[in-house]
Amino acid sequence: MTATPTDPHYTENVQDHLIQVQRLLDKHALVETVAHNQSLPRDERHELLDKMLHKRHLAELRERLADLHPADIAYILEALPIEQRLLVWELVKADRDGEILIEVSDAVRESLIATMSREELREAAEQLDTDEIADLAPDLPQNVMRDVFKSLSIEEREQLRAAMSYSEDSVGALMDFSMVHVREDVTLEVVSRYLRRFDELPDHTDQVFVVDRDDKFKGVLPINLIVVNEPEMVVGDLMITDTIQLHPDEKADQAAQSFERYDLVSAPVIDEDNKLIGRVTVNVVLDFIRSESETDLLNQAGLREEEDIFASVWKSAQNRWAWLALNLCTAFFASRVIGEFENTIVQFVALATLMPIVAGIAGNSANQTTTIIIRSLALGQITQGNASRLMVKELAISGFNGLVWGGIAGLFAYFLYHSVPLGLVMMSAMMLNLILGALVGIGIPLAMQKLGRDPAIGASVMLTAITDSGGFFIFLGLATIFLIS
Description:
Layout: H1 14-37, H2 42-66, H3 70-78, H4 82-91, H5 97-103, H6 106-113, H7 118-126, H8 130-136, H9 142-151, H10 154-164, H11 171-174, E1 181-183, H12 188-196, E2 207-211, E3 217-222, H13 223-228, H14 235-238, H15 252-262, E4 266-270, E5 276-281, H16 282-300, H17 313-340, H18 342-347, H19 350-378, H20 387-417, H21 420-450, H22 459-482
Parallel strand pairs: 1-2
Antiparallel strand pairs: 2-3, 4-5
């Protein structure tokens, strides 16, 4: 039986489950090695292998997996090397494949799907609701999707078409069709009888949606109002009409902000004719927020896509090439900047030891700025009206930090090399480079957003390149003017 959040053992740390599974897999590998090393005839060796493996460790492993929630199994699969992952995948009960495929990351899902037959994939997809099938569809072969489509009812086909028609970052992509709706002219007694007809209510049902005879949305009726009021009360007298309504073409991040701001559990999705077509629930919103956070983190590091940590060296290397190539170009550019001031460095060798300080602190300050900007953009807090004021503020912060920490660095340079001009050059270069870092820390995310790209894409890589090259140029340029006669 699948574990649920209400089971006592569900509260165990998922890492404990991972450790136990890895222990059983290690035992399995050890016994298999011993069995294959036995100096017995081939048939007897295979018989020994079957007896030792399938009746002991694999059976214990299968039993362990059967007690876990699909999300826990997905976590374990993502943390296992390919060979062990596929072994565990084979032991998972077939009627849970679909739920687990939905839970694992895109990169790991690809490796699992590659091992499944057309029939297995069809059966896995048929376990899911139409909105979940839509999430899985991009990873499934076309012939499997045709089989799945044929197996659905007419209503489910229309739902699947609708779910697949929306972009990944829209409310429509988060929407599900499992919802309870009633008419406004019925009594609470009728509603209660209707709810009791369900074997179980859809997940996260905190309210019933109220519609008219044409399925046009009228309001919501919280479940608690059904419980605490008299059965003779009419839905229309109790329903709440002032409620958050989402539209399928809205941006998903705007919906996520609404859920966070108003502590929503579910929200109706309304089309342009004001008809109720679905709902969005908090669990889907949390998954979206987590996914967006992971994507932003990867983009800042210059990774093209989510990476299976146990993918082949070749595939992982390809994922990292794009920004490494850019970084190599910027590094060559920075080296040429230094090369242009070779004579200055030769005459004042101390400059070579101080350059990394100027570049490093500016890079760190720029990353702080761009992190604040990316977060503010994600929350929708930056507009055309306040962008200029924000830029002035960040420049002022950088100027102040440059004066303080540049002064400290200048004193450090003075005590090391007993040169007042060098200390002043150090302070000035650090202050100017911090200001440059603030400019690019604000400019890069805003420019990316204006171009319709993710503001976080390659931010860290580009910031490092600019603050390094800019810092070297500013520091060595000032040194050439004021230190070299």
